[in-house]
Structures are given as C-alpha cells and as structure tokens.
Amino acid sequence: MVPSAPLDKTALAQPLEITQADLFEYVFSDPLLAWSFVLNIALAGLTILLIVYLGRNLTDPRAKLIAVSVMLISVVSISSYSGLTSGLTLSIIEMPAGHPAEGMTTAGEDGVLTMWGRYLTWTFSTPFILIALGMIAGSNMTKILTSVAFTIAMCVTGLAAALTTSSLVMRWWWFVISSLFFLVIVYIILVEWSAEAKQTGTGDLFNTLKLLTVIGWFGYPILWALGVEGFALLDVAITSWGYSILDIITKYIVTALIMVWLAKEPSEVTAGADYGSSLPGFSPADD
C-alpha cells in the first residue's frame, strides 16, 4: 500500500487570491458598472411599492395571484442585484484557449469578471414573468408549467456557458442548447398564448406585453455573444448596462403595465371567489 502524501496544511490556510471585499471595491471603482447594479435595486424597490399601491383594492383571487407573480419578479431582482453589488455573486475566471478574452486580467487577477449572479436572477424571476403572461392569456396550467420548465433550463444552461472554462467549443455548445430552449418559450408566447389571448379578450394588452418580453429577451443572447463571455467586443460595464436596461424593460415596465391594467379588475381576468381552492365550492377566508 502506497502511503498518501501528507496534507499541506499551510496551503489550505492560504486565503483566496481575490475576496468579496476586493470584488466589491472593484465594482465601485467603476461607477458605470456600479450604477448598472444600484439602479436596478432602486427600481425593483419602487416597483414593489407600485404593486402594493395599485393592488391594494384587488378582491378577485385570480387578479391577486397575477399581482403576486409580478411582485416576486422584483423581490428576486432586488435580492440578486444586491448580491452582484456586494461581490457575493461575482467571480473572476480565466477563459479557455482561443477565447478573445484569453489572457485578460481583472483587479490584478488573471481572467475576466463573470456576473454569474445575473443567471440566478433570471432563473428565479423569469418563471414569474411567464406565469403572469400565461394567466393573462388565459392559458392552461400545462402550457404555463412547460414554459416555466424551459425557462429554468434555458437559464441554467446559460450559466453553464458562462462558467465553462475547459473548452471554447463547450462554452458555445451550452450557448446553443440554451438558445434552443429559448426558442421553445418564444413559440409558446408568440403562437400558443397569442391565440389564447385573442379568444380570452386580452389580446390588446398581451400583444404589448409579448413584444416587450420577446424582443427584450432576444437581446440577452445577443449581449452574451457580443460581451466578454462571447466575442468580447463589449467590455464588462457596457455589457452589464445592456443586461440592466433589458431587465428594466422586461421586468419593471412590463410589471407596471400589468398592474395598471389589473387594478381595474377587468372581467377578462376575474375568476370568482373559489378560484384556486383545493376543494370545489370552498372559498378560503381572506387573511
């Protein structure tokens, strides 16, 4: 039996090469990058207050469910952007051989800044966007859950594309898989839900929401490809601002439009007191 090599305790005791404090300092050394995070924290907070105000008189349980869904978008966003701002969900990774950003340094370390916390934002917030859109369109639970499952798969494989450092080919392979999942979601929104919204009577609002959502969501893979994670044609701060602007459009503006419409409790969205009850004919008491 070959004895194992002795454990080098001094190596284990060595601190990480870059700390959260270093990343926090790096973020705020670049005001353009810092404001791309801070602005979204502020807007998410204001959007939550707007939802509370506009939804204060809602009585229909289905209308309330849509309001809660859009509120959770901003709840996730304010949390995730706080993680980015603090450096908690940022990392510096070295790109694989052949990548345009190979050999770059960030904050004195080899590699580029990766904002992997954004993928957490998208993974947990986009399902709530789709739940709200599906309910407004009058879709069934099967299609709504299908869209949610594909959007989670899209975000997770997008994260894999951002974090893969073993092979340039594998980075782009993950990107292709993520894009294919995205196209399934686009089909559901543009084809299935558009037809259902027309029948339900919510076509006018849904057409506006789908355009903002789909066009905005197409911007994310384009930015990925142009930014430091892809062809590195855009620097980190510009890429971050691009993502932040898209988040503003597809989250806060979409939420505001939904809540202004929802506050009137139009007949197309109301469903009666027993909506969502686990027992037919049973209406749970209000909290």
Automatic annotation (TrEMBL):
One GO cellular component, as annotated: membrane
UniProtKB keywords: Chromophore, Membrane, Photoreceptor protein, Receptor, Retinal protein, Sensory transduction, Transmembrane, Transmembrane helix
Domain of life: Archaea
Cited Pfam families: Bac_rhodopsin
Topology relative to the membrane: Multi-pass membrane protein
GO biological process, one term: phototransduction
Annotated compartments: Membrane
GO MF annotation terms: photoreceptor activity
Membrane-spanning intervals of the chain: 32-53, 65-84, 119-137, 144-166, 172-190, 211-234, 240-262
PANTHER family, A to Z: BACTERIORHODOPSIN _OPSIN, NOPA (EUROFUNG) (PTHR28286:SF2), PTHR28286
Family the entry assigns: Belongs to the archaeal/bacterial/fungal opsin family.
Name of the protein this chain belongs to: Halorhodopsin
